[in-house]
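Quick one, T. Sequence first:
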Amino acid sequence: MKTTPMLRTTLILTTALFAALFSSSYAADAPNGKALFDKTCAPCHLTGAAGAPKLGDSAAWAPRIKTGVAALFTSATKGKGVMPPRGGNAALTDDEIRAIVGYMVAQAGPAPKAEKADKPAVTAAPAAKAEAAAPKPVAAAAAAPAVAPVAAIPASGVNTFNRLMKPELKGNLPPPEDGAHDPVNDGTHSLQPPLTAFSTLSKSNTGNRVDWVKSLDEQSIKPRSDRNDPSVAPMVMDLNIIREVKGSMPDVVYPHKQHTQWLDCSNCHPAIFVPQKGANQISMASILLGQKCGVCHGKVAFPVSECRRCHSKSKPGAAAPEAKP
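Structure tokens:
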């Protein structure tokens, strides 16, 4: 399609207006946007996981930016494709999401100009002109937005990309550093650090390094069933749900007892799990995205790296071949 001078002028003005809008709206939020991006969005948007557009990839972001600010904000808040709402961090406010969107758009830079890149291939230039033009692609590459390499991601093992598998040194951080409390509030600094609170509990090698079920059995902790009346006994349901899985992996056992000793049924039903057979589509992908079991596991319960804690029931006949001479 040919572009008229008026259409080209309109496109230029639209692009300038869009850039001005972001520079004025997000200039003050740029540092905050980067910090929020590093904390929530980096695992996918630095690596391109699940097809996510990489930070600084102008070609990937150009069609998305063309849809406008409102569309980008809607995608970020409501989710799109495999990306969950608010990037899987429900605590993000609308203003924080706007700051993240602004930061990511600012890093995208101008879209690559395909017309100019094609000209050298079409025009047979003399050798001298070709040599003079050779450094230009290098200069263009140097001017491209800097994208953090994989090495720039905090070095803490091969599973750094998985927010549900935090390294040991990042667990049980003091309240001002855990990202869940306001570090500016004086009351945050008066809260007891988790390492101090957990020092007398049974230890675990995963999660926040506490074996909560064992601590519960040892009565090191006594959860309340009623906020106001400590004498109210919990309604414990001793019922195991077996979920068959495909392949050679053992089936999943969901024990209601260990959960209902300190959780009311309403914590999980019906918002997280519909109490009806076949009504819940559970997959490792959804859990890693913080859905279903991932609402708790990897955050306040042991992480999904502990496969055998859930996949604990051997399939019928699985051990039969080993018993043969």
